[in-house]
Amino acid sequence: MTMANGVDRGPRGDAPAWRRCADNVVAAVTVLARPARIRPAERWLLPTRHLLIAALVTLVFFVVVMVVFDARASAAAGRMPRWLIDFFDNITDYGKSGYFLWPLGLLFLGLAALPPLTNRISQRVLAAIMVRVGFLFLAIAVPGLFVTIVKRMIGRARPFVTGSADPYVFSPFIWRADYASFPSGHSTTAFAVLVAFGTLFPRARTVLLIYAFLIAVSRVVVTAHYPTDVAGGALVGIGGALLVRRYFALRRLGFSVGPDGVPHQYPGPSVRRIKSVARDLLAP
Question: How far is 275 from 110, CA to CA, in rounded Å?
């Protein structure tokens, strides 16, 4: 089985769809687990010293925002006009990861279940599509899973859980939704979507940025989170998606690491090529 840009597909044509799907999913996991294809020295863009400085600056930023803005922002949100609160309340759920992961996951499984193609170019086009769908799924799922676990370990109380906007209430490892404020899962998803889809579709970045910003603001307006919660979620979403992109690039799956050390996307299949694959699949 061979697949362009790194994922194998193509079990026997007479195999049932579920078997083709299972075989291709196993092949995809095998490819993802393979070692990186570049030297270890090329894997990080910043020296350790710079990373430590960046971490310290980030920590100071979060402490300052928590002390100065968190309680004030939550209190101010309760005084906003009802129509504005309702607007953000209506859109805030669009930051749930399920709106992206279910369609992407089902699309990947559907592609994996397709019958094998005899045309070499069509095989490579379909492989490239599967790599990109897999990237989008993991770039959203990985930071989302990380936040789901970490926020319950941190145990920060959501605004007004104790009757007031007190950003200093923590109950670590309590594993309750009302003590899972930091980081914001919705914000994590929104900014992971911004990076993941923005990487593959650069022209959509402005729309994606507006989407991510609105979701982040909505979490504060509906008093589900403090500003530091959404900032933390944004940081994890962006960082997590970038790490997934780099993981793919180190294995030359849809991306490569250029001489500048930055991941670059391989050219994707054109619309004409995709239409050609569709015709091959629909042909009797």
Answer: 17
Q: CA 55 to CA 239: how far, in whole Å? A: 13
Tens digit of each residue's pLDDT (9 = 90 or more) over 140-175: 999 999 999 999 999 999 999 988 899 999 999 988
What pTM, to 2 d.p., does this model score? 0.89
User: Is the bond leading into 269 cis (omega within 30 degrees of zero)?
Assistant: no
| Region 205-209 average pLDDT | 98
How far is 137 from 193, CA to CA, in rounded Å?
10
Q: Which of 262, 283, 277, 7 is nearest to 134 (CA)?
A: 7
Contacts of 149 (CB under 8 A, 6+ apart): none
What are 214-255's pLDDT values in tens digits?
Answer: 999 999 999 999 999 999 999 999 999 999 999 999 899 999
Closest-CA residue to 189 (of 207, 215, 224): 215
